């Protein structure tokens, strides 16, 4: 019989931070990337409003 619900041990580092499992870490990185893209878009828009083209190299 296959039991899909199992108990797992979770680990913390010395500072008390929960160590993430692979899926949790991947989701966290995805969220960080999304936030960085949003911030970059906002900053680019602010530059355009000031008459600066952020896409010129």
How are the SSEs ordered, and which strands pair?
Layout lengths: L21 H28 L8
Number of strands: 0
Largest sheet data: none
User: What would you call the structural class?
Assistant: mainly alpha
Total DSSP helices: 1
Order of helices and strands: H
| Terminal CA distance | 62 Å
The chain-level mean pLDDT equals 92
Strand content: under 5%
Which structural traits does this protein have?
single chain, 57 residues, elongated, 1 helix, mainly alpha
Can you put this structure into words, describing what you see?
The model has no long low-confidence stretch (mean pLDDT 92). Helices cover 49% and strands 0% of the residues. With 57 residues, the chain is mainly α. The chain has one helix spanning 22-49.
């Amino acid at each position: 019989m296959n039991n899909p619900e199992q108990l797992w041990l979770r680990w913390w580092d010395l500072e008390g931070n929960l160590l993430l499992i692979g899926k949790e870490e991947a989701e966290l990185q995805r969220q960080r990337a999304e936030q960085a893209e949003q911030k970059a878009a906002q900053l680019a828009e602010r530059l355009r409003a000031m008459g600066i083209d952020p896409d010129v190299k």
